[in-house]
Request: fold
Amino acid sequence: MPDFYYILKPMLLIAELVAALVGLYYLITRNIGYWKYFSFYLVFIALQESFWHFGFGIDPNVKQNYYAYFGIPVQYLFLYWLYAFNSLQMPKLFWSCVGLYLLSYIPIELWLKKLNVLYALNLTIGTVILMGLALLEFLKQIRDDSILNFRQNKMFYINAGVVLFYVGTYPLFCFYEQLRTRYQSIWNYYFLYFLLANISMYLLFTFSFLWGTRGSK
Reply:
């Protein structure tokens, strides 16, 4: 691993823990409505990442399978729910996104049976759906003028974090093996962006609690 990994990886874990603690604080002390589920989500992420950060001697293949079939899908499905079901208030769009995303597992299980292919296909479909939802959210904020008061808009911070990380790192994970094995220098720079964008996303999630208002969408 590049030298910056050993500095930024712990910083990422700290950012995740801070976001979870702030979310937990608002959950306990405030009536935050359905945003309580966002608090639960951040706590889940912090616990998940803390567990796998230390490893505890578990076989790396177990970790890969965990993220492929549970850890990553939970993140995508929750964000679909937050965007489509709640912010955009389009339940049918939410279920369509869920169905399309889950269908990405079928060709892998039936024919390919390769985890690296699963990551590429799963992340491609998952991120493309998320890109569409992020665009719809941005257009919604423009239409209702909530973007003018972005500092109090919780979804502004969340959307900015999602675009920065999920959309920005999409090419890295789509072509992960090719970059890592053939273009190491490009992979190093992109992996640096991955860590910085991930840290920034959880900081923006934290700001959504600190500065966003409860009723904002």
